[in-house]
Amino acid sequence: MFLRVLFMLLLAMNVGVASWLYFSPKPAQGEVAATDIGIARLELLAERERPGDAASAELTEEPGISNANDQCRSIGPFATQADMRAAMNKLGTRVRRIQSREAHTTQSRGYWVFIPAMGTREQALGVARQLSSRGVRDYYVVTAGDQQNTISLGLFREQANAERRRNEIAALGLSPQMLQRTEDLPVYWVDFAEDPQRPVNWRAQMPDLIDLKEQPVTCF
């Protein structure tokens, strides 16, 4: 009898303890700190601003700032890009700023002496026979293209020679004409800004390029 009562008492105590553990409020779980107290937080190198970045940006921009006291000049024309680049390399460390630009120029390709086109090929051949009978040998009857039935009397590099030829044919009673032939060519100029108190002697850097010209330009 006593053992049964003791068993029932122990069973009741176990049930009570289990119920209290199950239904009692659980303590709030605090957030675990990313680092222990007193230890500095780890910082990625990518997150840290490098102290030299701002200074580097300022140094990069500084050479391009225009100075109100600058003096700017342009030299050229250079016939090729290679000549232009060579000049920039020689002047680059002696000036404050430097740049290149392309321009265009008209160059003479000589002078053409001719008798203007006839109405028909027969007329052109008739004039050609007339020239031949008077001892003129250097001529050509154009047979096609925009100048068809024109009589070419020669291409000349020098204007004086072309004028002499024209006068020679005109003395035969004909009406020759003279036309200058030209072509458009790219040329290159180098512009630079300098300290007016210390002007650059650019001719001393390029003594072989005696045909170069100098002109003032608006500072850039």
From TrEMBL:
Spell out the molecular function terms from Gene Ontology: peptidoglycan binding
InterPro entries xref list: SPOR-like_dom, SPOR-like_sf
Q: Name the SUPFAM superfamilies for this protein.
A: Sporulation related repeat
Residue ranges of domain SPOR in the record: 105-181
Instruction: Kindly provide the name given to this protein in its UniProt entry.
Output: Sporulation related protein
Provide the species name: Tahibacter aquaticus
Q: What is the lineage of its organism?
A: Bacteria, Pseudomonadati, Pseudomonadota, Gammaproteobacteria, Lysobacterales
